[in-house]
Amino acid sequence: MYQNKSVTEFIFLGLTSDPLRQKIVFVIFLIFYTGTVVRNLLIIVTIKFSRTLGSPMYFFLSYLSFADTCFSTSTAPRLIVDTLSTKKVISYNDCMTQVFALHFFGCLEIFVLILMAVDRYVAICKPLRYPTIMRQQVCIILITLAWIGSLIHSIAQIALVLTLPFCGPNLIDHYCCDLQPLLKLACMDTYTINLQLVANSGAICSSSFVLLMISYFIILRSLRNHSAAGRRKALSTCTSHIIVVILCFGPCTFTYTRPPTTLPMDKMVAVFYTIATPFLNPLIYTLRNTEVKNAMRKLWLVKITSEGK
């Protein structure tokens, strides 16, 4: 990877410098991250081995759980470790790797949410053609395109950051490496580069959010023609998806659609979409989805019973 000759490492200022608050942050985010990994892995395993969760919706949900886990892993472990460190240092190469991972898995999550909306649209608005349109081969192609799109987005972002000269200082007023904090440290006018970054990340966030909201509006409107039972089931599923979309896109749009200025709430917004949202997503999907909860009970009941014998 490209190595900048002037700055070889960056120092995070973190969320707080108070020792007591750092210990509190350590405990809270260790719980959040552990919960994120365990719950998302539980969803992935349940979907993979359950015979009742073979529909495309759950195929995409397993990839959303995977993206959530990796997205949180790109920032949370270092944040947790740094709360116990007096000097929060990250090398230049590790910083660039973190930027790449953050945007790759964040973009993958956005694309998977779009695919889930497409799946719900076809299931509710085109029920008779659903098995033909959303067959397994199509789902695999769609998720492959999501991976390719995420890779292109991340390469475009990191390519712009790698052109920035860093001459010092190397203090990042954040707990992770991201585009906006790094732009502030560059030894050049970053106005043009910031426009390109906003045109990339900002356009993906805002356009995807508008597209998803329009699609769910169409879906909810079409529910008028369904039976009461079908309406309740579809409404429950779509409500879960809409909640996740708002939790995901609200903070991202706030962060990536504005000039590179520092606001007091930036760190808290970043904490919300990098740590809190991946923690909440599996709760939203499992608590509101009877099929997932029943599949989990059956799967683990069979496992416990087999081990008991």
From TrEMBL:
SUPFAM superfamilies: Family A G protein-coupled receptor-like. Belongs to the G-protein coupled receptor 1 family. This is Olfactory receptor. GO terms for cellular component: plasma membrane. Gene3D superfamilies: Rhodopsin 7-helix transmembrane proteins. It is found in: Cell membrane. PANTHER family: OLFACTORY RECEPTOR. Residues 39-285 form the G-protein coupled receptors family 1 profile domain. It holds the Pfam family 7tm_4. Keywords: Cell membrane, G-protein coupled receptor, Membrane, Olfaction, Receptor, Sensory transduction, Transducer, Transmembrane, Transmembrane helix. The chain crosses the membrane at residues 24-45, 57-80, 100-118, 138-162, 198-223, 235-256, 268-287. GO terms for molecular function: G protein-coupled receptor activity; olfactory receptor activity. The lineage of its organism: Eukaryota, Metazoa, Chordata, Craniata, Vertebrata. It comes from the Eukaryota. It is a multi-pass membrane protein.
